[in-house]
Amino acid sequence: MVPLGTSSRSVFLKPKSFLGILRKENWAIGSLVFCCTSCGLNLGVSLGGSGTPNDPRPSGNPVAQGSFSGSVSGSALVFQSGGGYVLRFEGLSVPSAAGLIVNLYNSSSPFVFNLTALTGNQNYNVNAAMGSTQFSSVTISSTVTGTVYGTAPLLGTH
After folding, report:
1. Rounded CA separation 158/155 (Å)
2. Which domains does the chain have, with CATH numbers?
3. Beta bridge partner(s), residue 155
4. Measuring CA to CA, which residue among 52, 144, 141 is closest to residue 93?
5. Rounded to whole angstroms, how far apart are CA atoms 142 and 25?
6. What string of pLDDT tens digits covers the 158 residues of the chain?
7. Residue 42: strand pairing partners
8. 45-to-38, 52, 78, 94, 114 alpha-carbon distances in Å
9. How many CB atoms sit inside 10 A of residue 104's CB?
10. What is the rounded CA–CA span in Å between residue 152 and residue 70?
11. DSSP string, the chain
C-alpha cells in the first residue's frame, strides 16, 4: 500500500492504483503528494490557506533592522516586545522552494523558524532566553537543498 496523506486523514492506494494516477494527466500532482508524504518533506509553503499574511506591526521602535539581498526581497526588523522579541518581515517575497526556514543570528546561536508564507508582512516571536540580544543577521534557506536564498544584515537602532 502507498500512503497518500492529507491534513485530516490518510488515504491508502494499492501500488497498481498509484501507478494509474501517475499515468494520467495529473501525474505531477500524484508524484508530489507521494514524495512529500512518503519522505516526510516539509514543502515550506501552504497549499491551502488564506493567502498573503498581513500581521500587525508590533508597537514601539525596532532594535535592529536590515534589507534582504539575494533572491529574497523585503526587510527584516526586530522589535522588543514584553520579555522577548518579535522578528518581523515587511514586504517579503521569497522564491518557492522545499523546506524553507528562517535563521535569526545573534552572538551565541541561531534561532530557527519555519517560514510561514512566501510573501507578505510576517511576525515571529523570539524567546528572550535565546541569549544575547545583539542580533547580527537573518537568512532564509532550504533545509532540503542547503541553498541560502537571501540574507539581511541587521544593524542596531539604539
Report:
1. 9
2. 2-39 (no CATH), 62-156 (2.60.40)
3. 65
4. 52
5. 29
6. 333 333 333 333 333 433 343 333 333 333 333 333 334 443 333 333 346 789 999 988 899 999 999 999 999 999 988 778 999 999 999 999 999 999 999 877 789 999 999 999 999 998 766 555 689 999 999 999 999 999 999 998 76
7. none
8. 17, 11, 23, 11, 10
9. 23
10. 9
11. -EEEE-SS-EEEE-HHHHHHHHHSTTHHHHHHHHHHHHHT---SS-SSSSSS-BPPPPSS-EEEEEE-EES-EEEEEEEEETTEEEEEEEEEE----TTEEEEEE-SS--EEEE---SEEEEEEEE-GGGS-----EEEEEETTT--EEEEEE-EE--
Whose cell is 508590533? That residue is 58
